[in-house]
């Protein structure tokens, strides 16, 4: 009877997860990132202090350095990741070089979105250890990186904090952390109250610590805690999160007859279009209805380039999921050739328009995109000869590098120099 009571009185210990040294080391890194986010991203944007562009570049560059120091062993031998990180760092440094916010404003605004988007894709490569041809998995991981991974690892953050401040064997460091955690919220409440209770106290206290507004102290603490939680969860998921299970999905197969009808029909239409291009655009035959070449170029460029992009999309779908035979391969090669002719037509139209009205930001980015699409067509052609070529990933990597080159060409200075050399009296604009 006594033995039964002893057994029933014993408490079953709860299972506790043991956190690795890296998981614990990530905590001070996340705290530092949270502080940097508050000072370099939140304060300049929402409180209107300082040069937002420079602060944004500093923050992402610091994040990239800390990320690489934390996952050094995984990153040191991967050349693709170093290339992506190098391009990202160059975009951050670009914001230090071109500090005048009145120039390159369109490129600057676009770069605010490009840097975090690229760094997100960079992190997914590490998390899944993907190959360049795993496009679908990378895209899914990129989406999950925005909406799931910043939150799914917060429980690990709480577990790490609990493991540092609890347990029977408390070290002085654990006690100090616990004291700081308790003290900071108290100071956030007490200091503003004391400053409001006695104006002299508040005046001298502000003089001691500088121009800091106590009314915003709690807001800064909230931003720091929020940022460190999200970044800890995200970075933790990269190395310790659950990886996607490799699922064997049925491969979509498009019937040969469908391929013949779709590709053949659009090719006939494109052949007629190219005949018109050779007649009026390339050969220089007079235009109907007294239409000028500048009007002719302006009306057709956007539509032509859009059709080229649609053609490349069709090529990718039918090349990946269409039947594999010589006829379809010939049709796809013909589609690429006609797309090249149409793209050259778009380039000629753009050149005519620039010759007539000068250079602007929109015309620069259009020319930049036309050149990129030409490179994509070449890669697609090579992909037909070399099956192992990761065409989509290679196009994405080239797009990143091409974007960096565009920034360092200093678009606004290029526009101004071109218009001055050819005596175009127009202001820099996005038109």
Folded structure, characterized:
The protein is mainly alpha-helical. It has helices at 2-9, 21-46, 52-70, 72-75, 79-97, 105-128, 135-147, 149-152, 154-165, 172-197, 199-209, 217-240, 256-282, 293-321, 326-357, 361-385, 391-408, 411-421. Helix 5 packs antiparallel against helix 6 and helix 9 (154-165) packs across helix 12. It is flat, with a radius of gyration of 29 Å. It starts with a helix and ends in a 10-residue tail after the last helix.
- pLDDT averaged over residues: 79
Largest sheet: none
Low-confidence stretches: 1-15, 427-431
* Total count of strands: 0
Distance between the termini: 91 Å
Q: Which strand-content bin applies to the residues?
A: under 5%
Gross morphology is: flat
Amount of helix: over 70%
Count, helices: 18
| Secondary-structure content class | mainly alpha
String of helices and strands? HHHHHHHHHHHHHHHHHH
Rg value: 29 Å
Q: What key attributes describe this structure?
A:
77% helix; disordered N terminus; 431 residues; disordered C terminus; 0% strand; single chain
Q: Concise description?
A:
This protein is mostly helical and 431 residues long. It contains 18 helices and no strands.
Q: How is the secondary structure organized here?
A:
Elements: H1 2-9, H2 21-46, H3 52-70, H4 72-75, H5 79-97, H6 105-128, H7 135-147, H8 149-152, H9 154-165, H10 172-197, H11 199-209, H12 217-240, H13 256-282, H14 293-321, H15 326-357, H16 361-385, H17 391-408, H18 411-421
Helix pairs in contact: 2-3, 2-12, 3-5, 3-6, 5-6, 5-17, 6-7, 6-12, 9-12, 10-11, 13-15, 14-15, 14-16, 15-16, 16-17
């Amino acid at each position: 009877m006594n033995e039964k009571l002893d057994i029933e009185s014993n408490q079953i210990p709860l299972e506790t997860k043991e956190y690795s040294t890296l998981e614990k080391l990530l905590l001070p890194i996340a705290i530092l990132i949270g502080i940097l986010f508050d000072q370099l991203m939140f304060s300049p944007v929402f409180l209107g202090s300082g040069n937002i562009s420079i602060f944004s570049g500093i923050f992402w560059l610091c994040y990239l350095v800390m990320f690489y120091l934390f996952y050094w062993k995984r990153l040191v031998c991967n050349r693709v990741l170093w290339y992506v990180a190098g391009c990202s760092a160059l975009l951050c440094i670009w914001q230090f070089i071109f500090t005048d916010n009145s120039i390159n404003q369109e490129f600057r605004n676009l770069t605010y979105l490009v840097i975090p988007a690229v760094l997100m894709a960079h992190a997914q490569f590490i998390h899944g250890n993907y190959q360049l041809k795993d496009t679908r998995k990378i895209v899914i991981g990129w989406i999950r990186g925005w909406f799931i991974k910043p939150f799914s690892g917060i429980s690990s953050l709480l577990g790490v904090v609990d493991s540092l401040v609890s347990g029977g064997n408390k070290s002085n460091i654990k006690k100090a952390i616990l004291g700081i955690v308790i003290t900071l919220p108290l100071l956030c409440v007490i200091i503003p109250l004391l400053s409001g209770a006695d104006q002299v106290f508040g005046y001298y206290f502000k003089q001691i610590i500088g121009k800091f507004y106590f009314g915003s102290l709690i807001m800064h603490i909230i931003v720091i805690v929020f940022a460190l939680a999200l970044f800890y969860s995200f970075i933790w998921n990269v190395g310790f999160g659950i990886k996607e299970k490799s699922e064997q999905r049925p491969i979509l197969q498009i019937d040969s007859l469908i391929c013949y009808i779709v590709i053949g029909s659009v090719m006939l239409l494109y052949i007629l279009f190219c005949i018109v291009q050779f007649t009026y655009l390339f050969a220089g035959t007079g235009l109907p209805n007294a239409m000028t070449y500048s009007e002719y170029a302006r009306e057709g460029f956007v539509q032509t380039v859009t059709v080229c992009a649609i053609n490349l999309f069709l090529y990718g779908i039918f090349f990946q999921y269409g039947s594999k035979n010589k006829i379809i391969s010939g049709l796809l090669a013909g589609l690429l050739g006609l797309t090249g002719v149409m793209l050259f037509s778009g380039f000629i139209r753009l050149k005519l328009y620039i010759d007539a009205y000068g250079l602007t930001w929109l015309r620069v980015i259009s020319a930049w995109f036309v050149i990129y699409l030409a490179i994509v067509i070449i890669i697609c052609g090579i992909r037909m000869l070399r099956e192992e070529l990761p065409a989509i990933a290679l196009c994405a990597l080239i797009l990143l590098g091409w974007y960096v080159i565009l920034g360092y060409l200093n678009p606004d200075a290029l526009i101004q120099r071109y218009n001055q050399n050819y005596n175009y009296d127009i202001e820099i604009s996005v038109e």
